[in-house]
Amino acid sequence: MKTIANRYLEITQKLSELSGNKVLTCLFFLIYKGILDLIYLKFVGDAYAYFGICISPVNIASGWLITIIMAVVFSEYYKGNTASSVMMVVFNMFYFIPMTTYCSYGGGSSSFLFWGIIYWALLTILQLRLPVIAWGRSGQSEMSAKSIFLFTAIAAVPVVYVWVRYAKCRLLLNFGEIYQVRAEAAGYGLSTPLHYLLNMMPIVLALLIVLALSRRQYIALIILLGLVFINFSIAGHKTVIFFPFILIGGYIFYRKEMISMILPGGILVELAAIAEQFLGKGLIINLLFRRMGFVLAQLSEFYYRFFSGSSIDFFRQGIIGKLGFDTIYSQSIANVIGNNFETQVVNCNNGIMADAWANLGLIGIFVMPVVLVYCMRFLDFASHNVNSRLIIGMIVYYSFAFANSQWSTVLITHGFALMCILLMFFPREQSRKNR
Q: 106 has which bridge partners?
């Protein structure tokens, strides 16, 4: 096993050095953009509802110009190689580049693209210039077995309590009963603190699982996997049971230097998606590039169009609403957007630029990049010298969470702030050993 692991490490190091070359990185960035344009034109524009082909020469030129500029600075993320650097790589691949493609070929307006470029330029500058402040603990440190069991016991309390009192010790073994269980769980009537605490448990349990695996605490690992199954049985959310395995996969296969392999890896996925399309499938394009890329861009423009002529919410459906300020909208903003641009059954959640337009309007284009970067700096602060293999799955998850939800919802309801606090107690490694 050690021979295989060492061989794998040698291969990844060589590939990372090759793909980290600045000229190759620029080339990969442009190739990724070009193939994504092709995917939209050939397989998305006329194939899916709410999309279409509407070519804009102005937006094509603007989109490629800013793409070339971003390609030049993209390799700077590899130098920092922090948690936020990985998030910026994901943001560029699944938010920024799809936005330029959608505006070029899908009918996105030139004004939306212009403000999108301003937002992205500010976000990029702040990410590259704002210093990272490290959490004070340094050097090699370990987390004892007692500490892992203590955190496990604390995490078990709300999960077991809800499972016993509300779910009546149900064990969900049949996936066909998931929607029935979800409908039942919606009527539990949990208190607000307990509801938030339970929502955060998938994050906590997943982090503890990879930590137990890394420390070879197999008894704790078995207990934690049992808690994950119990948590899944409460409300039937599939992400609860699959999420830990994504983190385990990241721990097994990821190495810190592999940040430079994410972009060329994305190109390979694009090519695989096109090949799959010719085989009559289209699952990768539908779930990854359409749903996680073009839909985000389209919904962001829907938010821009709606709030350009309607009252902004000032976070009253988010963090300000918790202080007693009522929103002027009778529905969630996600439903308001759905009602205005699609159908009355569509819940159009969106983040990043949509968050800016919905809550601060034009001012948000200048304010929200600051907010987003400080959220990422909080993660950098908490995860400094934490083995990147432990948290790579979490980093990718929260990249998509910020792209799909309001920042305060991600911070509190999705457990981002709690995760950062937990990471402050994780074992540290020397910088050169954080692999």
A: 54
